[in-house]
Structure prediction request, 288 residues.
Amino acid sequence: MHKQTNERIVFKLDELGIPRCLQFGHYKYNHVKPALKNHVHPKIIEICYFLKGVQCYQIGQKIFELKGNDILIIAPDTLHSTGMYPEDKGELYWIQVSLEQKKGALCYLPENQSDFLLQKLSGSAHSIFKGSFKLKSILMRLEKELFKPKDIMTELNTNQLILQLLLETQAASENKQEPAPKYRLQQIDSFINDQMERPIFVDELASLINLSVPYFKAWFKKQQGLPPKEYINRLKIERAKADLLIKPSITQVAFDLGYGSSQYFSTSFKKYTGITPKSYIAITKQLN
Prediction:
């Protein structure tokens, strides 16, 4: 009925007697995983709810970068993967729903209503939008419900939560998002890029845009989907990827980016990329 590890669980909804629904899954990764390979879901819509971290997906030739509270809908019969990127550390829920009427009634809805809802959701595919406050609560309640022994009440509650999830997702897809405060974020990026050679502290970034440290942390996480310190580390690793190919040694790259030792740098690099700096150099040279 479900597959579970310490970091990931997948419920097979069709095997639990939930018509039209295939998978409901949740992962919470503390370390990067291998890249998700190209695959297709025939006549199935997949909705990804990204709670925290940063994750890149490739749909066709286009790259989508998801951050905290982002939603991405993948249309049926669409080739998708994480491209050249690993499955990054972070937290994600997803659900798969079949478009085929012969699979049964979706959440007890009449045929015309289920078709209408799924067509509306499909129309929002391949664009990132923000989720509502309610969605995380619905996702957590649905997961909790699926762990319960199966009976009529559990089945009713599960169908009700799935319908609520789909309706709330559709509503979120139609909400106009306020534009992100790009100037402040650009200021922060510019400061970090100019100060890469030393440790960068959160209070410096807060002071830069005249916010208190507690407010800045909450504001920044809402905007970028991850805490400031982790964001700094990710930018340093991106710089390191370029530097490793042109600088004479791994130690030189580590010290130039403000790391106290090459060993600490290598540990951090592997945490965010899944491979060591040495392996990265070898793989990149082989590809080129």
Notes: Strands lie at 2-4, 8-12, 21-29, 44-59, 62-67, 70-74, 80-81, 90-98, 128-130. Residues 2-174 form a domain with the Jelly Rolls fold (CATH 2.60.120.10).
